[in-house]
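Cont'd.
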Amino acid sequence: MNSTMINNIIIDGMTFALPLFIMAIGGIFSEKSGITNLALEGLQGMGAFIGALAATLAAAAGVPDDSTRILAFLFAALGGGIYACLHAVLCIKFKANQVISGVVINILAMALTSFLTKAINRTVFGAASDKFILAVSKRITIPGISRIPVLGAFFTNVYPFEFLIIVVAFLAWFVLYKTTFGLRLRACGDNPGAVDAAGGDVAKLRFAGVVVSGALSGIAGMCFAYSILAKFSGDIYMGYGYLSIAGYIFGNWSLLPTLAACLIFGFARSGGYELVKALGMPSAYSDLVMILPYVLTLFLLIFLSKKNQAPKALGEIYDKSKR
Amino acid sequence: MNNGRLYRRIAVAAVLLSLLAGTVLMLILGKNPFLAYYNLLQGSGLAPKAKYAAARSMWTDLSSFIDFWTPMIFAALACAVAMKTGLFNIGISGQMLVAGFLATITIGYSGLSAYLAKPLVILIGMAAGMAVGALIGFLKYRFNINEVVSSIMLNYIAEYIISFFIQTRFVDPVSRQSKNIGAAARLTLQDVAIGGYKFSIPLAFVLAVIACVLVKIMLDRTVLGYELKAVGANRTAAGYAGIRVGRSMIVSMAISGALAGLAGVSYYLGYFASIQPKVLVSTGFDSIAVCLLGSSDPVGILFSSFLIQVIAKGSTYMSSQQGLESEIVSVITGLILLFSACSAFFMGLVVSRKNAKNNTKDLRFGDEAETAPAAVTAAVNRPAEDKGGEEA
C-alpha cells in the first residue's frame, strides 16, 4: 500500500463522508424534535434536482461558473426545505404514520424528479434526456499544509462544499445545544408535553426541525450531484439517505459520533475501490465493493441498536388533548 | 355508514384527486388528458386499440395484463401481512430479486420437465423470500433494528451481489441481462394459440387469487392472524395478553417474505424470463401504494392492484401515442400513495364529526383513535416503532 493509495482513500472518502454527515445532521434535527425522518433519501434527491435545474438554467443564461455553483447550492437547500414541508404537514397536521409518510415522500420524489427532468429537458431545452449534466465542481488544494504526509491529504483536492459542510456543522451544533430554540427542539423529542407547558409551540418547533433536515439534505444531494455523479439523474437515489440514517442511529443522535460513523462509511467505500484498482480486478468486482457500506451499516446496527437511546417521544403524534 | 364503506369512499376520493392532479399536469404540457387515460385502458387490453399486429387482439393484451398484474397481488399481500403486524416491509423488491435469482439459477437453467420444474420454482421462491423476510424480523426482534433500515440495506446488498453474479456467470452478451430461462420452468405459458390469436397464460394468477383467500382467512379467522393483528395494534398490550411478540414479528415477516418470493418468481420467471442486473423492480415499492389504497385487506388489494397495474401497464402505450413521458404515471401512483397516507386522518375526522352529531350530550374529545376502525388503527397506531416497546 503506497502513499498515493492512502491519499486517494482519504480524498475520496471525505468527499463521500461529509455530504452524508450534513444529511445526518438534518436527520438529527428532525428526530430530536420527535419526527421520524425516513424521507432523507427523497429530500436529498429533490434538493439536488432543484439545484441542478437552477444551475442548468443559470448556465444557459450565461452566469459564470462560480456564481452558478453558489446559486445551485442555495436552490438545493431551498428545494429540499420546501419539499420537506410536505413531510412536516403530513406528520404534524394530517397525523399520518411517520414511517409511511417518509417512504411516500421518497417514492414521490423519485417519480416527480425523473418525470420533471424528462419533461423539462423536452419542453425547455428541446432535448430527449433524462439528466442534467453538471460540470464536476473545481477542487482546491491548500498550499503548504497539503504537503504533510498522510494528514496533508485532508487538504488536497478538496471540494469547496466540504468547507461549507464544516461551517454548517459548527452552526448546527451551536443552534442545537446553545440556543433556546435548540433546547426546546430537543425537548420536543423527549417530552413534548413539557415544552407545551413551558409555552413552546410543539407543532412549530417540529415543523422547523423537519424543514432544517430538508434544507441540509438538499445541500447533501447537490454535493453528490457535483462530485460523484457530475450530473442530476435517477442515479442520485443510491440509498445514501438511508446510509446517513444508519449513521446517526450509530452515532446515538449526537453530532461527533455521527461524524465518525459517516467517516467509516466513506473510508470503507473509497478503500474498497482502491483495493479493486490495486489488485487489478475486473470492473464487475466493484459491484461487490459497493455493498461494503451497506454491510457495515447492518453490522454496526446489530451491535449498537440495542444500546443506543432514541429520543423518547420519537414517532409519537403530539396530541394536546391527551396530555 | 360502516367503516368499510367510509374507507372505500376515501380511497376512491384519493384516486380521483390523483387522476385530477395528473390531468392538470397533462394540460400544462399541452396534452389531451382524456385521450391519455383512454390509452392507459387500451394498453392494458381493457379497450380496443385502433389496429393490432398479426395474431394479436385486445384479448392478447388483456392476457398479458393479467400476467403483469399477478406479481403485484402477491407483493401487496406481502406488504399487507407485515403492515397488519405493525411492520413495514419495504424490502419486497429485494426479496423478489433474491427469490427470482435463486429460482432462476437452480431450476430455470436445469432442464427439468415442466411438471417438476414449475412447482419447484414456486417452492424455492417462497423459501428464499421467507428466509430474507424472517431475517429482517429477527434483526428487529433480537437487535431492535428498524426494519425499514435493515430491509433497505438488504435490498442494496442483494441488488449488487446478484448483479455481480449475473455479470460474471449468467450474462447474455446480447441483452446484457441474465440468460433466458427454459420454457419448462416458466410460470407463464407463452404464445398459446387459441382461435387464431396468441395468448400468454399466467399460471401463477390462480395461485395469487388463492393466496388472497388464504391470507384473508388467516387474518380474520385464525389464532395466528389474531395474534399478528394484536401485535400490530399494540405491542405492549399484546405482550401482557401473553402473545409472544417477538415470535409474531418474525412469523409475520416470514409470511410476508414468502409472498414477496412468490411475487418474485411470478415476475422474473413468469412475466419475464430473465433478470436485469443492477435494477430493483418498482413493483415492490408500488405495492405499498396498492396495500395502503386497499386498506391492507386482501379483497381491497385485488381492486387496488388492478387499478395501479392498469395505470402502470398502459403507460408505455400512452407514452408512445401521446408523446408524454411515461414517468407521469409514477407521479400519479405517488400521489395516490400520498393521499392514502392521509386517509386515517380523514377517517378520524369524519368519524369524530358523526360522533359529535350523534351524542351531543356525551361529548368526549380526543376519542378519534378509539372510534377509528381496527384496520386503520393497526396501520397507524404504532408510535412505539423505533423504541422497541420499552415504554412498559
